[in-house]
Write a structure and sequence with these properties.
Blueprint: H1 3-14, E1 20-22, H2 31-44, E2 50-52, E3 54-59, E4 62-67, H3 74-78, H4 80-100, H5 104-115, H6 118-131, E5 137-140, E6 147-156, H7 163-169, E7 176-185, E8 196-200, E9 206-210
Parallel strand pairs: 1-2, 4-5, 5-7
Antiparallel strand pairs: 3-4, 6-7, 8-9
Length: 213
């Protein structure tokens, strides 16, 4: 983590905003390294900044799982050193875009996605994960593609059957409950065309925003 970024996070925290830093594949900090970062934060100023690999938020009964999303990327899990090596040219292209406005990084990514729809694979893995969990939605980044999508999941009603219900179930199927699940991708703040973020409302409303400079 760069010190200039840490200083900005402390300023935001001191304004009264609860700051939670979610670790991703570019900053896989160990417990010892996280303690060092917290020491740097304390030197900058008083703050309540939290650093986690994953985080959960409950709003008006709706529970969301928040993570960077690289845990759903099996290539990074199986080939960590190769993924870091392949990441270097991508970072270089993004810096060139930011300096000269060439748009080369986006062209390169669009070319790769024609052969390997990486973002859709990650989204499907998130869907399979949510189907087994009680979360209302999952919020990630990682793929750099901002998106909000939803789908319906059928789950069996968890009840203790009475004698009458047991007799009913002999000739009928177990009642199911249909729940809506949400996949929310916050995008990124390194590609010039993105700079996106997601807001969650108290009543379950979800919005994707594009920051305008």
């Amino acid at each position: 983590m760069r010190k200039d970024i840490l200083k900005k996070l402390v300023k935001i925290d001191q304004l009264g905003v609860h700051v939670v830093y979610i670790l991703g594949n570019h900053d896989p900090l160990t417990v010892k390294q996280r303690k060092i970062v917290h020491k740097h934060l304390d030197k900058i100023g008083d703050n309540q900044i939290e650093i986690h690999h994953g985080y959960q938020v409950r709003l008006n009964g709706f529970l969301y799982q928040i993570s960077h999303g690289h845990s759903f990327d099996f290539f990074i899990k199986e080939h960590p050193y190769l993924s870091h090596l392949l990441d270097l040219p991508d970072r270089l292209l993004i810096h060139l875009d930011n300096w000269f406005g060439l748009g080369v990084s986006q062209l390169a990514k669009n070319f790769v996605r024609q052969f390997y729809d990486w973002s859709k694979i990650i989204e499907k893995r998130c869907q399979r994960y949510l189907a087994k969990k009680a979360f209302y939605g999952i919020i990630i980044g990682h793929t750099h593609i901002p998106k909000i999508s939803s789908w319906e999941v059928k789950t069996k009603v968890n009840i203790k059957p009475s004698r009458k219900l047991r007799f009913y179930l002999k000739t009928h199927k177990m009642p199911v409950q249909i729940r809506t699940k949400y996949y929310l991708n916050a995008g990124d703040w390194i590609e010039p065309a993105h700079c996106t973020y997601i807001t969650l409302g108290e009543r379950g409303e979800k919005e994707l925003h594009y920051f305008r400079f």
